[in-house]
Design goal:
The chain is an alpha+beta fold and about 180 residues long. The chain has four helices and four strands; from the N terminus they run αααββαββ. The protein folds into two domains: about 90 residues; about 90 residues, Ribosomal protein S6/Translation elongation factor EF1B (Alpha-Beta Plaits). The longest helix has about 70 residues.
Amino acid sequence: MNGLFDRLRTALASLAPRERLLLAGAGGVLLLTILWLAVAMPAIASIRNSDERVAAAERDLASARRLQATLAELQGRVDAVEQRIREGPAGNIFTTLEDLARQSAVKVESMEPQAAPAQDHYKETKVQVVLKQVTLAQAVAFLHGVESSPQLLSVKSLRIRTRAEQKEDMLDVTFTVSSFEPR
């Protein structure tokens, strides 16, 4: 290694002062280029990247706050439904549906119990109701009565078909109603 330095020193000593100055300038430019590429460029990129990361984090925070507000609203709605289930009148869903049909001047073709998935906190009772040859006004009145009943009832599915064989505007309506009670 010392031999290499000795040869380098001898080569520099044999150069004219102008050549040495030119070589020192080229070495300085090379050193500055290396410092720029190795230190300055990564530091600038890191600063720019940190600005982007801050902006992304702020967007994520705003999104999380919106989700938190939505969750709070949904939790409030769930709490209201649960309170309505706990405090609402309990009763036989079949009796309630028959009373609503009578109030709406609708003749119920059939009411069939349906299997309901098991719940931990609430017992769900499902009934499929079939109405035949009813007017749109009768069907709407009956469904409105179901949705606005003091007993918590919910229409889960609804199918309405027109009766092609009749000239009047009569409908066949099939829907499923659920009722919930605390366990």
